[in-house]
Structures are given as structure tokens and as C-alpha cells.
Amino acid sequence: MTKNNRESPQKTEVKVSLVGGVTLGVRRDVRVEVRGLRLGGVKDDGPSGPGGPTVRIDAWGLVGGVSVRRS
Fold this sequence. Notes:
Elements: E1 2-3, E2 9-19, E3 22-26, E4 31-35, E5 42-43, E6 54-63, E7 66-70
Parallel strand pairs: 2-6, 3-7, 4-6, 5-7
Antiparallel strand pairs: 1-2
């Protein structure tokens, strides 16, 4: 995990697949940014609170999206 400043730590994950999506489980305050090229969509209802850490997903694939599950 890298930090831009002390209040907003960041982590980057890379997803590469030909077929198949990914489900990411995060805390409610985590912001998720999805970048890359994929035919599947992104399912994310967003963070429920401001000021949390950020996770960036670089998603590359033909079929399969990214789903974010908050707990």
C-alpha cells in the first residue's frame, strides 16, 4: 500500500482475464476506482463515508466485469 498523504492510503490491484470477472470485498469507507478495458461492467454502489482509503483496479479482459461488495 502506498500513501499520497497520511489521510488517503492507496492500493492498486491488476485483474487480467480472458473470461471471468472478479468480486472485491472492501470496507464501507473504501473508495474503488476501476480502470482498464473490459466488456463486462462495474457494479459498485460507492463508499458510504468520506475520507477512506482508495483501491484502484486495473481490469483487462474480454468477458467479465468487476463487482464491489461492501461489508
